[in-house]
Amino acid sequence: MARKRTALHGAVSPGRSNWIGTGAGKRGLSYAYLVRQHESAVELYIDRGGESDNENAKIFDELKAHQQQIEAVFGGSLEWDHVEGRRGCRVRYTIKGSGYRDGESSAATQEQLIDAMIRLEQALSPWVSALKL
Fold first, then answer.
1. What per-residue confidence (pLDDT) applies to 9?
2. Residue 85 CB neighbours (<10 A)
3. Could you give phi then psi for residue 126, rounded to 5 degrees?
4. Domains in the chain, start-ordered, CATH in brackets?
């Protein structure tokens, strides 16, 4: 379904996890779809590995400095998640009531997620590309 609208995850096949992801063009940054019991989400996940807490936070802060522009292009509010003491950071959009236990609306949920991923990638990619890593 997504392949008809975007090539972003075109080479990715689902596995046993509740998420699939693909690189965002910079090491340690990935775009991911997530499905939980009663919600689904799309996100940019930031984790450059190992002892990279400070580097992850710096990348997150650089993107968050453009939050207003990013959310304007996205067309709504995003969750900006950086918790002190946790290595990874994320910029996420969540759709409540759209998890794997809410299967009756799975086709509609897939369309919403694909649309959200396209908008998320469009909103973030100029700023991700501009990162000096």
1. 45
2. 5
3. -65, -35
4. 16-130 (3.30.1460)
DSSP string for residues in 27-43: TTEEEEEEE-SSEEEEE
Q: What is the pLDDT of residues 59-98, one digit of tens each?
A: 999 999 999 999 999 999 999 999 777 888 999 999 887 7
Nearest to 63 by CA among 131, 132, 13, 133: 131
* pTM exceeding the 0.85 threshold for the entire prediction: no
8 Å CB contact between 97 and 41 = no
- The amino acid that residue 121 corresponds to is E
Model pLDDT, residue 41: 94
Check: CB of residue 40 under 8 Å from CB of residue 34.
yes
- Is-contact 20 32, C-beta < 8 A? yes
CA pair distance 73, 111, nearest whole angstrom: 19
Q: How far apart are the first and last CA of the chain?
A: 33
